[in-house]
Please model this.
Amino acid sequence: MKKSKKTSPGKNPKIEDLKVNSKSGNGEFLTTNQGLRINDNQNSLKAGERGATLLEDFILREKITHFDHERIPERIVHARGSGAHGYFQVYESMKKYTKASFLQNPKEKTPVFVRFSTVAGSRGSTDLARDVRGFAVKFYTKEGVFDLVGNNMPVFFIQDAIKFPDLVHAVKPEPDNEMPQAASAHDTFWDFISLMPESMHMIMWVMSDRAIPRSLRMMEGFGVHTFRFINENNKSVFVKFHWKPLLGVHSVVWDEAQIISGKDPDFHRRDLWENIESGNYPEWELGVQIVEEKDEHKFSFDLLDPTKLIPEELVPVKRIGKLTLNKNPYNFFAETEQIAFHPGHIVPGIDFTNDPLLQGRLFSYTDTQLSRLGSPNFHEIPINRSLSPVNNNQRDGHMRQTINIDKTSYDPNTIGGGCPFQAKAAEGGFTSYTERIDAKKIRARSKSFFDHFSQAKLFYNSQSKPEKEHLINALTFELGKLKSDEIRSRMLGRLTFVDTDLARQVAAGLGIPVPKPESPVNHSIPADGNPQNYQPVIANPPVEKSKALSIENTIRKSETRKVAILATDGVDDKTFNSVRSALLNAGATPAVIANHLGTIVSSKGMSIKVDESLLTTSSVLFDAVYIAGGKESIDSFLKAPESLEFINQAYKHFKPICINNEGIELYNASDACQKPNDNNDHAKLEEAGILINKNSEEFIDAVAKHRFWNRKIC
Ligand code: HDE
Model:
């Protein structure tokens, strides 16, 4: 059969011709959805000036009806999200491992859209919930769309997709009273977790500082499952995907997270938006851990088990390219809300493994888009469209956009010249990896999935002292919120399998003894095993400690850090100017916080624009504080209790504080317990991130350090 040039079923009028991109407020006339120009948008059609509105008013009805239907169902999980456009570029060809076209040419930029999300909360919930963050990347490659739908943690709660609805039901607000919103600190979640020992490694991550990131720009991403790379010779290797942020991994503290949730629930969304607007484009390197097929069974854990990571000490992460986010969406709904990810959207050169969690996801994502976006044509929504041509015989359905201009919608055909044709592998046609399968049909789990504790131990042992303290506090907080003593106690029993000291410290905070650990009820026991006799399998951790698991070892930079400058009328010009310009030169984002909005006048009469007043902002929204000198300025702050609260919080949250001259008086009036007049020498204060009359460079170094955990809290 000859390929016909004339007839290609997918050839449609261009999107531009259909004028779907519309701007309001650009001088065009206001119209109805049918293009009818509207003469009066202020008054409905009435029977007389004071009379009833007439049913005839089709303009009113169209407007209100559209409004009534403006909402679509939110995502069942990951409802709260923020996204941005950007591009990906590979550093060098990955030909040796994969034939994926977007991983071949370092000169090629592949467009991407990334959506970050929390998991449990509703669309309007706070950004700072203690939760996993979604990190989903859509690559619009020349060979079709590739979605890398990952999280900011490298492992997951469960090993098999069949348990996902149970997990989500347990963590979502409780069904009788719909409480609590966007929080795991409640009975149903911990009831499930305490009965699910395989979740213990993930629990360590979720109770760690990773679950309360400082910024979406400062968190890692992981593909979680083991995937396959396939090269041109059809050779396969296993691959784990990582995203490494160039700004390092940074978090806030829990008390701060809770205050931010009230002061600015859009904290992460705003941070991402503002930084992209001001040209601080967030960047991540794509890393891969590659395992040859022959090494599949050489680890003490199973590569198919999504509750395990491969320690970087065993298989290093090779950084192969860079992701840059450089454009905010035009329209949140059209792009961030309507984007539809699916781990099954892959391209030649990438394939799945038999990870039972991944396998279940392959079914779920199309299904969810059908109910969320309402049509099998969700791929035609502009943000979901493939940049490579789409030619197939799928037709019709709700909200179909494509106007197919051919007579044929079946294959094979002769009437349409045989179009569209199947592509051979050499023509870019996708072929599944020909993995050998020879097995019995059973519901069971491999014994290689049974060790639920050794990597939880590895994670805990890899944390620094402050990180361990945060983790213990998080567990104490979460379990402290439970109504059921039984669940609390069962959970403590589980923690003893991770670390007895950890369990002891949490128990002390809860005011109960550590119970004798019971055998965990384990739903992964095969049919022939007896759950009553089950003892936890705890292999030796593959390595004792892993450096990559502690965020203490991360990159530290002052770039894009938000620094509050406390300055009001009468501020000292010299110190104010030098610190502010040094911060700007270092790429930080200083903001002047005064006791009123508008402008302030310095001691020498300079007029300074105020960014926020003490009333409109809060210490928790900044990374560091600078208290500028100037007698009049400080005297005026001393009369404002909010300024002292500003310093108290920065101190309590371990943030760098820099003070000049008269500013010391304000600092001394705060509740900070390390003060210059308390026999604290300046070197000790400096170690604790309190800089008195230091130069700007030293302050900038302290800003880059992010937090000073050795500070005395009293
Ligand atoms: Fe998802 N997940 N998931 N998930 N997931 C969804 O798809 C699901 C899992 C992840 O920004 C849903 O479009 C099942 C792991 C992200 O739009 C839904 C299972 C990982 C996002 C769904 C998992 C993820 C989702 C809800 C267990 C990390 C947000 C709305 C088998 C590797 C994507 C939607 C976005 C979203 C199902 C487990 C990541 C219902 C059944 C593991 C980042 O289809």
